[in-house]
Amino acid sequence: MRVYSSLWNADNWDTRGGLVNIDWTAAPFVAYYRRFRATACKWNGPVSIRQCGIPSKGNWWTSNVYKQLTMSQQGQLKWVRDNHMIYNYRTDFNRFKGQMAPECSKPQY
User: Domain Xyloglucan endo-transglycosylase C-terminal spans what residues (predicted)?
Assistant: First the structure.
């Protein structure tokens, strides 16, 4: 398994409509993963993806501990959003004519 990621210039849409520009003097930008251990559901075609949502020991992400954040975790997430998030695609209703982005309301499996 491999993980790929990319950085792109999103000045015109992902930075409050261009209000927050990327500081290109800080380039080159480098990203890395530390202590990353990938665990995933095996893909054997379209039908097998449903098996990834079945609660089992192998599907650790379906256990109750991952179904809801604790109050403390919710507070931490709110702090990060309030202090670091510049743009939220899911709440950009102007971009989608008063609607939520279509993929944001689709079921997980």
Answer: 56-104
Query: What does the alpha-carbon distance between residue 66 and residue 53 come to, in Å, rounded to a whole number?
Result: 12
Specify if 27 maps to a domain. no
- Is residue 47 one of the residues assigned to a domain? yes
* Cis upstream peptide for 46 (omega within 30°): no
DSSP 43: P
- Write out pLDDT tens, residues 55-71: 888 788 888 888 888 99
Is residue 16, in this structure, part of any structural domain at all? no
> Rounded to two decimals, what is the model's pTM?
0.50
Opening angle at CA 96, ends 93 and 100, nearest 5: 60
Q: How many domains does the chain have?
A: 1
* H-helix or E-strand spanning residue 74: helix 71-84
